[in-house]
Prior knowledge:
Layout: H1 2-16, H2 28-69
Amino acid sequence: SGKALLGTIEVRNGLMHPKETFDLGITTRQIEAAEMAIEWLNKLHNDLFDHCRAEIAARTASLLVARNQGK
C-alpha cells in the first residue's frame, strides 16, 4: 500500500543518514513492509500500463474505422 511505501522511504532515509550506529539495522517487519510496498507499486504500474494499452487499442481501432469509412 501507499502507507507501506512511505514507511519504506523512512527506512531508506534512516539507512542513508543514520544518527546512531544501530540505525543501520533493518527489522523483519520493515523488510515485509518493503515487500508489500513493491508488490503494491508493481500492481499499480501494471494496471496503469494495461489501461494505457486498452485505450491505445480502442483509439487505434476507432481511427481505422473512421479512415475506412472515409474511403
